[in-house]
Amino acid sequence: MPCDYYFPPQEPDWDSITLADDFFFGYVMQDESICKEFLEILLNKRISELHHIRQQDKIKLSPSRRAVYLDVKLYADNRVINIEMQTTKKQDLPLRIRYYQSTTDSRLLPKGTPYENLPTLLTIFICTFDFFSKGLPLYTICNTVKELDNKEFQDKRYILLYNTKAYQKAKNPAQRDLLSLISGGKPKSEKGKIFAKSVQILREEEKFKEAYMDYYLKENEIWTDARLDGYETGRAEGRAAGRSEGIAEGRAKGIAEGRAEGRAEGKMETAKTLLAMNLLSPNEISIATGISLEEIQKLAGAN
C-alpha cells in the first residue's frame, strides 16, 4: 500500500474538540438534560417533553436509494426535530435538507393513518459559516404561497439555519454564548457558563474518549480503504487509457509514415519515367519532383 494512502491514528487534542464535531455533538445530545437545555436556549422557548433521542440515525428507504444519516433526531412537544452540524459550505444544502425532510417524513405515518396526524417537522442546521452571506445569526425557512402575499402553506415543515459566525447578533446572552461555544468560544453569561461546564464534564469522561477513538479508528479505516480503492482504480484506468492512447498514437504515426513513404515512392517513379522519356534535363526533373539533383543523376546513371 502506498504510504500516502494510510494515516496512522493519533490521539486527538481533547480540549480542541468542540460541539461542531459531529461525533461529540451527538454524544453530548444523548444526555437528555443537556439536550433539553441546548434546545431551549437555541429555540428560546421552554420544552416540556423530550424523548427518543437518536445519534447518527440511519434512514434507508431501499437498497437502490441513497441513505441518510441524521446527526441527532428526537421528539419534543409533538415535534420531530433533526439537528445537524455543518462545517462545510456547499451550495446543494437546500436540496440536502429537502431530501432529509422527505426521508424523515416517510417513517412518520403508519399505513392507514390520516395525514393530519403528521407531526411538525423541524430541521435545524447549525452552520459554522453564513450560507446566505447576510450577516444574520438565524434564517427561518418555511413554505409559503407566493400569490397570497407569502401566506404560510401550513405543511408543518420548518427549517432553521443558524450561523455561528454572527453569534454576537443573537437575541439573548445565552443564545450568543451557545453559538460562540459551538465554534470554540468562551461563554460570558451565567447560563452559558453552566451549560459549557456540563459539556466539559462529558468531554473529560473516559467513556467518551474510548467511544471517540473507536469511532475515529473506524473512520480512518474507511477512508484508508477508500483512498486505496481509488488509487488502484485510478492506476487501472490510467493503464487502460495509456494503452488506448498508445495504440491510437501508433496507428496515426504508422498511417502518416506510410503516406510519406508512398509519396516518396511515387515521386521516384515519376522521375524514372521522365528520364526514360528524355524530354527534360536532370535539373528540370529535380525541380518538378522535389528530388535532389544528386538523386536524379544517380537514377540516370542506373538507367
The average pLDDT score comes to 82
Rg over CA atoms? 36 Å
How much helical structure, as a percent, in the residues? Answer: 40-55%
Question: Which oligomeric state applies?
Answer: single chain
Structural class: alpha/beta
Order of helices and strands: HHEEEHEEEEEHHHHH
As residue ranges, the low-confidence spans are none
Tell the overall outline. Answer: elongated
Number of helices: 8
Your description of this structure?
By secondary structure, the chain is α/β, with parallel strands linked by helices. It contains 8 helices and 8 strands. The chain is elongated, with a radius of gyration of 36 Å. The strands form 2 sheets. A 6-stranded mixed β-sheet has the order 1-2-3-4-8-5, sandwiched between helices. Strands 6-7 form a two-stranded antiparallel ribbon.
Please outline what is shown here.
The relative contact order is 0.10. This protein has helices at residues 22-29, 32-43, 93-105, 173-182, 190-203, 206-277, 282-289, 293-302, and strands spanning 50-59, 68-76, 79-86, 120-127, 138-142, 144-145, 151-152, 157-163. It is built from 8 helices and 8 strands, in the order ααβββαβββββααααα.
